[in-house]
Design a protein that fits this description.
InterPro entries: Integrase_cat-core, RNaseH-like_sf, RNaseH_sf. The chain has helices at about 55-70, 100-105, 125-135, and strands at about 10-15, 20-25, 30-40, 45-50, 75-80, 85-90, 95, 110. By secondary structure, it is of the alpha/beta class.
Amino acid sequence: MHLEHKAGDKLYIDFAGDKQSIVDVETGEIQQVEIFVGILPCSQLTYVEALRSQKKEDLIKATENALLYLEGVPQVIVPDNLKAAVTRGSKYEALLNEDFASLAEHYGCTVIPARAYKPRDKALVEGAVKLIYRS
């Protein structure tokens, strides 16, 4: 089913499933990183960042970095039901993590987590993740 998306309406964010390896330039050590992905569905402009973890602090910083990269703030941020953004997931109404809710309040947008067990709700970000792993 084809969905129409309005410009500036939503930013879908998620972490890719598998960790990736990077080489620390200073030490030469191989490190495991999480891959954060944010995508604007109308233009499909995508932001990708390697992070040390999926912890709340890393998610908030990556989300802020995505907003800076995109040079704007959408009306709605749509995260997956990950612990760093959602305290209690639900099929119908999730309880947001207080710090992530504060981020949205600071930027003047709303957070509406994707419904649990409904991958089509965030199909574009899932598709972006697949493209990243193929690259």
